[in-house]
């Protein structure tokens, strides 16, 4: 007797809402509404259309689109064919986009009409691309040489597509890191890894009793671009649960807030920059945000932002991971055994919400010294964060040296400096390249930023280290003030000095300079670009 081995393939995720007959919708900008059966048929039609263009097992298919139902359809149809989905970072420079698409060996490109000017610049640099499909939100002329327009191709395609079984270790996706050094690196994930990551995130968030708990009754709206680490994996989670899903298209705060209210959104995720934009938006002042669960990732959640969001009734908390980890490794879940009768917005609760959190299901996290020895779980002793789980990338496409360094010693190296407390919570102190080494001490740029953000006039801040002949490095703070607010350099230095005077932080943490600016440099995914800022403010005055 033979048994069915049930490979862990992405198509299994889509089977669940169909089998359970979910009556929820997938919504795009409030204009397109699809039932789950309609969505599944469109996935099949897309599979048929791509197969007709010659997409086979192992083919590479690149997508350049805003967050949309089309993108979600590609999340499923492309890997379900056995092909590899390459999600193009639309915020890179044209030269970097050309490099990543070509390096991924994509032969098929789906591109939104908004990005046609970019394609025109780089088309000669994409010799492997044979078929191009136009994506559009309205009537559009199909350029010469294109295979066709997305909706027309789906309408003409066979509504039944045979998505076969194959090895669950087959590659499903690839995308490119936006590291601050060297060329972007291609990160790879298999079907097995994506299914296990989906199950890990789903089960971990369903374990939550006090914050961030999810169910099939939630309404999901991502505020993380879908080109970035599978939109942190949540579209797969939301689909498996049969949630109502809402996709915003191009990020515009007013549109997001409108959809948040009209579609009754309850769960989202974003980087701190996006949350800052939403909380600062005049439109948000008149909207009831209570009951909205928001997972913050990509950068540390500032304490002041956490407090501001909680005052608006937002259930805000942190997740931690990286491109190479699929990405979620830890979640900042509140625990009754720690809080007791303390309120969910108490200082103790905020400490937890702004930490990196506790490991998700199937994830091992350690903090180690240079010899890979685990440091004490006292909440203070720093070390590098390393991890293991069944869904961490095996390495970088075509880059064996970087892959070997990533997995040195059999653990994946994050490059983050952190500490684990006695309750198992990880707190990230800094990126190893961002920690400031001054006067023989290590100063956390994240900790300083959190402290400076306690001043009511400070909207955003980045702390960086600049070279200093005497001390090695010295911290400076780059500050964006709130509109119409006044704050002086001396005021901000005094906040840090007050903590140094009582021994909470080192005296070396007092910034040499406070630089006021209208905007902070950001990376293509909304993180602080400290490399650019270090170059800009490289010359510090002599101490």
List the helices and strands and how they pair.
Layout: H1 11-19, E1 25-28, E2 32-35, H2 36-52, E3 60-64, H3 69-80, E4 84-87, H4 94-103, E5 108-112, H5 116-122, E6 131-135, E7 148-149, H6 150-156, E8 171-176, E9 186-190, H7 191-207, E10 219-220, H8 234-241, E11 244-247, H9 253-262, E12 267-270, H10 272-280, E13 293-296, H11 303-311, E14 315-321, E15 328-331, H12 336-339, H13 347-353, E16 358-359, E17 364-368, E18 383-388, H14 400-406, E19 412-420, E20 426-431, E21 436-438, E22 441-443, H15 445-452, E23 458-468, E24 472-481, H16 489-501, E25 513-516, H17 530-536
Keywords:
543 residues, alpha/beta, Rossmann fold, GMP Synthetase, Chain A, domain 3, seven-stranded mixed β-sheet, five-stranded mixed β-sheet
What does this structure look like?
Strand 19 (412-420) and strand 20 form a beta hairpin. Helix 4 (94-103) crosses helix 5. The chain is an alpha/beta fold and 543 residues long. The mean pLDDT is 94. Among the domains are: 11-189, Rossmann fold, CATH 3.40.50.12780; 436-536, GMP Synthetase, Chain A, domain 3 (2-Layer Sandwich), CATH 3.30.300.30. The strands form 6 sheets. The protein has a 7-stranded mixed beta sheet. The protein has 17 helices and 25 strands. 30% of the residues lie in helices and 23% in strands.
């Amino acid at each position: 007797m033979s048994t069915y081995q049930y490979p862990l393939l992405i198509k299994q995720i889509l089977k669940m809402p169909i089998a359970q007959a979910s009556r929820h919708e997938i919504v795009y900008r409030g204009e397109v509404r699809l039932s789950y059966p309609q969505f599944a048929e469109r996935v099949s039609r897309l599979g048929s259309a791509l197969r007709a263009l010659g997409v086979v097992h192992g083919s590479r298919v690149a997508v350049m689109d805003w967050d949309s139902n089309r993108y979600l359809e590609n999340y499923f149809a492309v890997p379900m064919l056995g092909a590899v989905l390459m999600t193009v970072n639309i915020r890179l420079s044209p030269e970097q986009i050309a490099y990543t698409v070509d390096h991924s060996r994509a032969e098929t490109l789906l591109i939104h009409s908004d990005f046609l000017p970019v394609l025109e610049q780089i088309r000669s640099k994409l010799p492997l691309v044979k078929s191009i499909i136009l994506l559009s939100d309205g009537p559009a002329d199909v350029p010469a040489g294109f295979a066709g327009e997305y909706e027309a191709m789906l309408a003409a395609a066979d509504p039944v597509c045979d998505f076969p079984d194959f090895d669950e270790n087959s590659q499903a996706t690839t995308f490119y890191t936006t590291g601050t050094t060297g060329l972007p690196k291609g990160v790879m994930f298999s079907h097995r890894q994506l299914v296990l990551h989906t199950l890990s995130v789903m089960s971990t968030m369903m374990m939550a009793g006090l914050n961030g708990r999810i169910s099939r009754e939630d309404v999901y709206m991502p505020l993380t671009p879908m080109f970035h680490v599978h939109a942190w994996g949540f579209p797969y989670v939301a689909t498996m649960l049969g949630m109502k899903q809402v996709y915003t298209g191009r990020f515009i705060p007013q549109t997001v807030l409108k959809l948040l209210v009209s579609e009754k959104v309850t769960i989202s995720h974003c980087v701190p920059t996006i949350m800052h934009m939403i909380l600062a938006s005049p439109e948000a002042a008149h909207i009831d945000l209570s009951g909205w669960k928001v997972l913050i990732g990509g950068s540390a959640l500032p304490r002041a932002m956490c407090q501001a969001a909680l005052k608006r009734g937002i259930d805000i908390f942190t997740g931690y991971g990286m491109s190479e980890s699929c990405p979620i490794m830890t979640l900042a879940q509140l625990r009754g055994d720690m809080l007791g009768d303390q309120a969910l917005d108490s200082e103790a609760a905020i400490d937890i919400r702004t930490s990196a959190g506790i490991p998700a299901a199937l994830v091992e996290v350690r903090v180690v010294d240079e010899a890979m020895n685990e440091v004490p779980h006292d909440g203070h002793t720093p070390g590098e964060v390393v991890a293991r789980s069944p869904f961490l990338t095996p390495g970088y496409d075509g880059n064996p040296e970087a892959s070997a360094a990533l997995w040195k010693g059999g653990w994946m190296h994050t490059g983050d400096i952190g500490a684990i407390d006695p309750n198992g919570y990880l707190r990230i102190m800094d990126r190893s390249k961002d920690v400031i080494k001054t006067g023989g001490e290590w100063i956390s740029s994240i900790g300083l930023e959190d402290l400076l953000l306690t001043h009511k006039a400070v909207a955003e801040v980045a702390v960086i280290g600049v070279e200093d002949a005497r001390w090695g490095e010295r911290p400076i703070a780059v500050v964006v003030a709130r509109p119409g607010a006044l704050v002086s350099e001396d005021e901000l230095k005094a906040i840090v000095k007050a903590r140094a005077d009582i021994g909470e932080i080192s005296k070396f943490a007092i910034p040499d300079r406070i630089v006021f600016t209208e905007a902070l440099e950001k990376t293509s995914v909304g993180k602080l670009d400290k490399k650019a800022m270090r170059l800009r403010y490289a010359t510090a005055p002599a101490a």
